[in-house]
Every structure is written in structure tokens, then in C-alpha cells.
Amino acid sequence: MNKLAYIGFFLATVFILTAIFAPYIATHDPIKRFEKIENGESVSRKNDPPSRDHWFGTDSLSRDVFSRVVYGARISLFVGISVVSIAGIVGIIIGAIAGFYGGWLDKFLAGYVFNVFLAFPGLLLAIAIVAFLSGTNPSATDRIRHLIIAMCITGWVGYARVMRGQVLKIREYDFVQAARALGASNIRQLFIHILPNAIQPLIVQASLAMAGAVLAEASLSFLGLGIPPPSPSWGTMIDDARGIDTLRTAIHNLIFPGAALALTVLAFNFIGDGLREYLDPKQRKR
Amino acid sequence: MNKYKIFNFAKRLGLFLLVIFTVVSLVTILIELVPGDPATARLGDQATPEQIQAFRERHKLDRPAFFFTYSSEKGFQWHGSRNRYLDYWKGVLQGDLGISYDTDRPVLDMILERYPMTIRLALAALFVAILISIPLGVLAGTNKNSLIDNFSSVFALMGICLPSFVIGPLLVYLFAVQIKIFQPSGYEYPEDIILPAITLGAALSAILTRMVRSSVIEELGEDYVRTARAKGLSERIVVYKHVLKNGLIPVVTILGLQLGVLLAGAIITERIFNLRGIGTLLLDGINTRDHRLVQGVVLVISVTYILANSLTDMVYRWLDPRIRLN
User: What's the ipTM?
Assistant: First the structure.
């Protein structure tokens, strides 16, 4: 596997461990507002630059940026894993059905349903679904649920297409034919014989989709359609930091969550590309 | 045109119409997901029953949502053609997307007012992307593993992993705060489109640079390049006249597919730079809970996206005769 893929694995591991052990890594409470003593008076620690107390500085509401970035990894990872696994399972099942049964069912699914879902720009559909699902002042758990539903609705098609293509190819292989001749049921053929041989490109798809889901969560949060404040999502943090005054005086508010997001997206893209190259020897030479 | 071609064209047209039909239907049905009653949500708890009734009649909310409804108390009920789904369809076919809950103006007028800005932004971004990616991709592809090739790889990587809502504020920081040559937001003068266009076009430049590069490398290995070189043509003519012409075919597809992505991405860019386009209109609609407006904007963006994709498909077929035969 190429070097970039190893970098990807390393960064992804850091990201996942940070998310899991967030309470131990964070140096402060991510939603607490801090104060400092200035001329004998206690004033808010608004937009302080990075220091020994606050490694990534403080934001416009005097909160510790480092701890918020650390806890932000949790939201990203949770949304990402939920979306990848739910959309993956749904997509794999639908793709397998389309590829395995063929005929009018395949024509309907691959020729029509897939095309309809691909016809929407994913981000727009996700925005619309979240906007329509949420009533006034949705709670944080509702919003996370809506985000995951929206991203699954837009995300399953990718897996379904890959899976369908794989099943169409593999079901004609001799060992599947042999299993069929021995009287294996359709379910058995699909899950015992076809799926294990179809899994490789699906892993690549999952890795790229993970990058996409992390990015989509941040995008929706940036647009104010994500998890409501004060929960620390990277997208919301970037949105808070983009005002001209904050840019002028406290650019660290933008840099740190932006870098965390970029590195995470980069990591999963590297893994996906690296795996694709590794699994497809034809591409390795390039 | 032979029979086969006509059949093929009819098939694509049929699928196109079917997709449009489904998209309109989905958007129509999506609005029914909104929890609560729009009339009370807009008018508040203090509204009199007459006011609520008037609002419902004005926005055609007094009819059932669909051809039939099912509830556990009343069971299955058939409502016939007097329903909101059909009403919306009738409106769409007559160019009427309903009336905004918030401003009481026709939704279509509001969209048409804002659309030129978004199209200007998307085209400017497309222009930026082409301007960067074709020269950079060709240079990288013809000088494989050189300094410029490595630079183009790093550039492409940054464009792919840095989302527009990080690039945008960074550009504002660099070119409106540190070096004051552009306005941080708004659109007054033509040059105000530059930062938004770079923000929106960055990801596309990255993807295109990689595509142009690999496309050029692939084409350089073809037999016709050897023939052209053997004829004594200069390397410049070989690259720009022969290789680029063939190498750009796959790039055209990506460009067309990306035009729709740009329209969706414009939502984020317009928010960063506070541009009065269709994206900020959508976000305003969401914030004021003007679901009729949101519905209209989603519909218009989706239809534009589908149209762009279908047109690309046709141009692609026309450019590359090999595909026409298949």
C-alpha cells in the first residue's frame, strides 16, 4: 500500500482515539466560559490567542477551543459511523437484490430509483430533509437523528451501485454456479458466496463515504442546520469564527477546527484511494 | 438518424421526464413532513379561527394532502383529485410555485430575482476552475514527477480536503483583512465576485487538475502521438492540438456534472460572502420557516441540476463518436 494510505490510517486513528477518549484529552469543559484577572478585575477571556492555559486559544464566547475541537471529533465520528453503517447496510441489500434477481426489479431499481437519487445534488437534498423534518427549536438529539436520516437517504445509492455491479459480475463465477447447482438457496448464495467476494470495493466506498459524511455534517452545521449550540461541532465553530471582527483579531478560531476537519477528511480520502489502488493491481503501476 | 438512434434518444428523454416527475413529486411530498400546522406556526397561538381559515385558503392548505389518507380512527379515505399534491402539479405546469408564507409574494418571482447572482457565481467558479486546471494539469502531465507535477498534486490535495467554508473565510482573512484589496462580503462591483468564485471553484479546480493530468499522461502513450512526433511536429503542437483535444473529452463530462454541484455548493459560498443568490434565499426560507419558498428553491435547483447533467451527456456523446456506437 502507498505511503499516503499509511498517513491516512495514522490520522484516522488519532481522530478515532481523540473522539473516544475526549473527556480524558480535553483540558477544559468545552462549553464553560472562562474568565481571567486583568488589573485586579475579573474579565471574560474572549478571543484570547493560544497560550499555556488554552492551547488553541479561546473563542468569542470565552470557551476553550482545544477542548471544543476534541469534543467536536466525537460528533463527527458518531455521525460519520452511523451514516456509513446504516447507508452501507441499506445500500448493500438493495444493490444485492437488484444485481442478483435482475429482470424488471433490476430495471426498476438501477434504471429508475438509482437515477432519481443521483439526480438530486446530495447536499441540497440533505438540507431540504433536515429543514422539513425539524419543527421549531429541535433538541440536539432530534437534530442528530435528522442529520443521520438525511445523510442516509442521500448516501445509500453509492453502495447500492457498487454492490449491484459486483453481484452482476460474481454471480456468474463458477463457484457460485456450483453452489447453485448444489441447491444453495438464494440467501445462501448471496451471503455466503457472493458477499465475501464483493466486499473489497465496498470498503473503499465506505472509506470515501466516511470522508463525505464528516464533511456533510460540518457543512450542515455551518449552515445552521446541524447540532444546535452550545454543542461543539467543527462546522458550527467555523461558522462562529468567520465574522470579519473575529477574523481580524482571532484567526485561531478558524484555523484549528478548520485544520481538524481538513485532516480528518484527508485521512479517509487517503485510506480510500490507497485501498482502491491496493485492491486493483491494474492501477498500481501509475 | 436511423431507427436505433431515435429509439435511444426516446429512451433517454423518457428517463429524463420520469426523473423530473419524481423529483417534483418528492419535493411536493417532502413539505408534508414538516411537523405541526403551517397556519398556526405562522400566525401564532393568538390567531383567530377566521385568520387561520383565510391563511389556509390563500395557500391552498384547506385540502387533503394526497389522493388518499389513512388514519387509525377514520381508516382509509379517498379524496379524489381535490388534493394539495395535484394542486402543486397544476401550479408547476403553469409556472406558479405558490405564494411565500412569509412575504406573500409569488415564490417564482422571488427565485427569479435571486437566480442571476447564483448563475453568475457558478459560471465564474467554473471559469476559475478551467483557468487553473487546464494549464496546471497539462504542465503536470507533460512533466511527470517534476517540481510542477508535485506542486499540482499538493494543490489538488488541498482543494479536495479543504471545504469551501474554510477556504472562503481564509481568503477573506488574506485578501480583505491582511491585504485590503477585496471587500469581505457583499456584491457591489464586478470584482467582488472574485473571492467567492475562487472559494466555490477551488474543489472543482482540484478535481479537474487531477483529471487533466491523468488524461494527458494516458493520451501521450497512444500511437497517434508517436505518429505525430514521427511526422516532425513540434512537441507544442502535439500536446495542444492532438493530445489536449482527445484528453479533454472526459474532462467535459466532469465539468457538466459539476455545474450542478456548483449550484448546490453556491448555498455555502453565498452564505460566506453574503451574496443575494438563491442559496441565501433558501437559508432565509428555512430560518423564517417559509416552507413554500424552500420547496420552490429545492425544485428549481434540482431541475437545473438534472438539465445540466442531461445536456452534458448529449455533448459528451457528440464529442466522442466511440460512445455513440455503443
Answer: 0.86
For residue range A76-115, what is the model confidence (pLDDT) as tens digits? 999 999 999 999 999 999 999 999 988 899 989 988 888 8
Say which residue, A41 or A167, is predicted with more confidence. A167
Q: What is the CA radius of gyration of chain A?
A: 23
Whether chain A has a CB inside 8 Å of the CB on B30: the answer is yes
Strand partners, B69: B77
Which residue intervals of B100-162 are DSSP H helices?
A: 107-142, 147-161
Helices (H) and strands (E) in chain B, counts: 15, 2
Q: B249-273 and B107-142 helices cross at what angle (nearest 10)?
A: 130
* Cβ atoms of residues B299 and B285 within 8 Å: no
What 3-state DSSP class applies to A59?
A: coil
Q: Is B160 on the interface with A (CB under 8 A)?
A: yes
Q: Which of A129, A236, A242, A254 is the best substitution to test chain B (most B C-beta atoms within 10 A)?
A: A242
d(CA B136, CA B158): 15
pLDDT tens digits for B6-40? Answer: 887 788 788 888 888 888 888 887 777 777 777 77
- Give how far A245 is from chain B: nearest CA, Å: 9
B44 closest CA partner among B6, B117, B98, B101: B101
Which domains are present in chain B? 2-93 (no CATH), 107-325 (1.10.3720.10)
Domains and CATH numbers, chain A: 3-24+59-279 (1.10.3720.10)
d(CA A143, CA A156): 20
Which residues of chain B are within 8 Å of residue A251 when distances are taken between CB atoms? 173
Cα–Cα distance between B4 and B8 in angstroms, integer? 6
- The pTM of this model reads 0.88
3-state secondary structure of B100: coil
